[in-house]
Amino acid sequence: MDALIYEELPAVYRTPPEILEEIFLYCWHDNSVYTLLTEAPFNLVSTCHRWRQIATFNLPIFWSTFHVTFTQKACKPPLPTLKLWLERSRKLPLSFSLIYRGRNSFDGGDNRSTVIEKMFAPLELLSEHLVRWRDVYVDLSDLPHNTRFRPSSLLEEELMLETFAVRTFKPHPRHNTHSLIPNYMNWISKLAESSPNLYKFDAYGDGPITRLFGINTPDSVPWIRLTILTLEHVSETLALHILQSSARLLECTFADLGRYIDWIANLPLPQLRDNIVVPRLTTLRITAEGDIDSFWDRLIIPSLQELKVYMLPGSRQWHQGDALVQFFQRSGLILDAELAGLAISAQALMSVTRGPPISRISLRNCNIPSRSLGSRVKLLSESLRELIVIDKATIDNELVKLLTLPDLVDNGQHIEATDEQESILCPKLEYLTLVNCINATDGLTSQMIKSRLMHNCETLRQLKSVLIGFSQSGHAEDFYQLEKMLKEGLNGGVSIKKGVTLARRKTQLSD
Predict the structure, then answer these.
(1) Which residues contact 498 (CB under 8 A, 6 or more apart)?
(2) CA-CA distance, 260 to 62, in Å (whole number)?
(3) Which superkingdom, per the lineage (predicted)?
(4) Cα separation, 410 vs 204, whole angstroms
(5) Residue 308 gets which letter from DSSP?
(6) By C-alpha distance, which of 135, 139, 149, 215 is closest to 180?
(7) What are phi and psi of 387, to 5 degrees?
(8) What crossing angle do the helices spanning 476-487 and 444-454 adopt, rounded to 10°?
(9) Phi–psi pair at 99, nearest 5 degrees
(10) What is the CA radius of gyration of the chain?
């Protein structure tokens, strides 16, 4: 091209391809959860021929993440398009979600075998690139109950799968041992077992997970490899068996933990240890509908830093306050996984003065008396930075006074440490949420917060954010004082009577 004409072109046409590639990469996002045709790379390839060439041939990462939905007769994106994307991705690892969306039975007008062949075409196409699967989510819970799952046979070589999420589903009365669910779940287990790099596994849905996990069957997810785990609709016993086999686990979520019958009949149960130690686990989140006291009785987590327990609305009365306190005591006593086999006596538990190094604890709808809650706070006092208590718990005068800082005397330069100061509860507390749980005398709660906000002691942390909700109207002084603090710069909010907010809520800070 003539140099003069080239200089007269707009800058976008004179930009080197390498610069355009960098710009395009800033526009790209992971398409494995959802795909928007108005965003990169699809808007780029429809702009002009030059951009299309760069996005199509120079950036294979654009085509390595995608979202696929299919029915009995159709696929989105269409199979030819999906095949083209797979070719454009070259040899890069693939991240995708595969979801079936259809009715619960076959259309009567088509030949059944023909429908099955069409239906599993997207899975068969993706299975041709099985060795490149890296981050995958599979949801086939809408598959017709009268079909047979036909996965392609797995390759002999190891897979590069790192994160794997699946959705289970309840069996239909017409399901049988040679039908959909067993084949589907065995395929999932074999995929996980063939993936030495698998570190994250998620299973959602309320299907019979024992057939998937194979706790007492030959097929099994490799629990020992996992560092992140999420399971939905699982029994306390099965959860403990899984934790017993997950020595490397760092983060774990059990949603809808309960007393379900999830063992395969006529097969022996593996033996549970008396003390189940999960040495590396730092984050545990639990959602449950009823008592899960037996879950805490054996569990020991010495490195736990974050605990979230949410009892679902309408759940039965919760009677595990003492069980949770003893869990903290055992976890504080056992500092090394080698001690897991030792018996823990009641006398040893009584001597424990601190629990695991929990910095954030969230208890919602847990029906905890003040005595039990106070015991937990004392055990976690040294490390606790964020305390969240919502609904059904009791924060009374005694506990509020324990959290209130004593009057600290300034000698003109710094605050002197005293024996009283050294015994202060939760010296590192920075975030506090108390909603519909305060049963203390009016004025004590605001005084406690003010004491933690106004001090200038270098060894104590100041509150950064508070969220207070009073379920009773007799807290006028508390409300007035807290509203004043909010106007003076405290982050958070205050409300009185459930559902009626009386002070503007500012942006809450988080870690």
Answers:
(1) 436, 469, 471
(2) 43
(3) Eukaryota
(4) 56
(5) E
(6) 149
(7) -120, 125
(8) 30
(9) -130, 130
(10) 29
* Residue from 413, 506, 403 nearest 449 by CA: 403
Give phi and psi for 200, each to the nearest 5: -135, 125
Closest CA to 256 of 304, 280, 292: 292
Distance in angstroms (rounded) separating the CA atoms of residues 85 and 73: 20
Taking the chain, what is the end-to-end CA distance rounded to the nearest angstrom? Answer: 56
Neighbour tally for 429: CB within 10 Å: 23
| Residue 370, pLDDT score | 78
Residue that the structure tokens 């969240």 belong to: 388
Q: At what angle do helices 321-333 and 370-379 cross, to 10 degrees?
A: 10
Length of the chain: 511
Spatial separation of the C-alpha atoms in residues 278 and 300, rounded to whole Å: 6
Distance CA 434, CA 445 (A): 10
Q: pLDDT at position 256, please?
A: 87
Tokens of 454: 């106004």
Contact 280, 303 (CB under 8 A): yes
Q: Buried b / exposed e across 85-121, counting CB within 10 Å, b at 16+?
A: bbebbeeebbbbbbbbebeeebeeeeeeeebbebbbe
245 vs 281: CA distance, rounded Å: 13
Token readout for 309 is 């327990």
Residue pair 246/268 in contact by the 8 Å Cβ criterion: no
Distance CA 351, CA 328 (A): 12
Task: Spell out, as residue ranges, where the chain has pLDDT lower than 70.
Answer: 1-13, 103-117, 151-155, 171-179, 208-220, 259-270, 314-321, 334-352, 408-423, 498-511
**Cβ pair 86, 129 in contact under 8 A:** yes
Q: Which helix (H) or strand (E) holds 116?
A: helix 112-119
The secondary structure of residue 55, as a DSSP letter, is: I
- 321: which 2 tokens? 């306050």
Residues 358, 349: Cα–Cα separation, whole Å? 18
pLDDT at 485: 93
Contact 65, 31 (CB under 8 A): yes
CA distance 510 to 386: 9
For residues 248 and 224, the answer to whether their CB atoms sit within 8 Å is: yes
The beta strand positions in 281-430, using DSSP E, are: 283-288, 299-300, 306-311, 360-364, 386-390
